[in-house]
Amino acid sequence: MSSVWGKNLQISLFGESHGQMVGGTLHNFPAGIPVNMDRIKLALKLRQGSNNFNKARKEEERPKIVSGVTNGVTNGAPITVLFPNKDYNVTEFVKGIPRPSQADYAAEMRYKGAADLNGGGHRSGRVTAPLVFLGTMCADYLASKGIEVVSHIRCIGDIYDEKFGAEIPPLLIERLNSSPLATISPDIRKKMVSLLMGIKATGNSVGGSVETAVVGMPAGFGSPIFDNLESKIASILFAIPAVKAVGFGLGHMFSHALGSDVSDPFVAGPGGEVRTATNYNGGLNGGMTNGMPIIITTDFKPTPSISQPLKTMDFIKNRIVDISIKGDHVACLVPRSNIVVTSAVAVAVLDAYLEGVGYR
Questions:
Q1: How does pLDDT run across 130-162, given as a tens digit for each residue?
Q2: What value, to the nearest 5°, has the Cα angle with vertex 70 and ends 68 and 73?
Q3: How far is CA 233 from the centre of its chain?
Q4: Does the global pTM surpass 0.85?
Q5: What's the gap between Cα 117 and its chain centre?
Q6: How far apart are CA 168 and CA 170, in angstroms?
Q7: Phi then psi dihedrals of residue 24, to 5 deg
Q8: Roughly what angle, to the nearest 10 degrees, separates helices 229-237 and 334-359?
Q9: Residue 352: strand pairing partners
């Protein structure tokens, strides 16, 4: 099982959904950096969600830093944080009856019947708690260098928010990074809430997407070919449960475009800096930053655990059976995942930044 990511900065995640705890370790993070616990606490609260359609499993988050921090300041050693699980040793999985659209069957095959499948085991969204903690540390460090990472809900179902423009004001970044249902348009937020309440009432779920911007990243970061910044960001985003697609700039719409319509001509900015007149490529050319905001879209599938009756295979009795998945299910993963995406992108960008400052 590969639960270690990164080259210049490394992050490892461990634990299971219904094990004693989950946790993570961050290697090669700069020393002498104060840990912004206020920002981390806010990020963890956003990950839990605060709306009726978000409520599912709620752990009382009391993370414990066990290494790498002395008197609130990083000391250069690996930073390890632990999150005890309240739902410890709770058994939900029925042997031989995998839940539809989840990793139960695949994990049974991969680990020869030894995988912990309760609540998704190591593949659960619960493991994103340490990712948010450590990723927020990375985001805060980048902010000290003038680089901001911010996300908003691009869509839930067929309801779309506005897209990020070429200019993303600081006040918008601040608002989105503290909102439990982060949208650029307040009117769209209301429509999303209405949709989610309706979906929740029917016991169903809906997919959606998160749009992320990295603002202030200078040009020339990223290393082609296999270690380019697009592949770095995509690889860590695909570690988030339920992520099914990642795009940059115009993303999949490039396949419908003419070259003349999606050209990003270089121009001089207001202060004489080099920039592009448009940003179809999302701040990246050849896997390297060009100085424009990096724009990423992350698509999530609908929550596979729903209250409606489903069918699956009972592999012990060799027959199709009805399955009812218990619990207070999430109508959409996107509101809670907004901060998870921001945190993951921050880790990848800091990895590239630390590589870049070594040769700049």
A1: 999 999 999 999 999 999 999 999 999 999 999
A2: 85
A3: 10
A4: yes
A5: 22
A6: 7
A7: -155, 160
A8: 150
A9: none
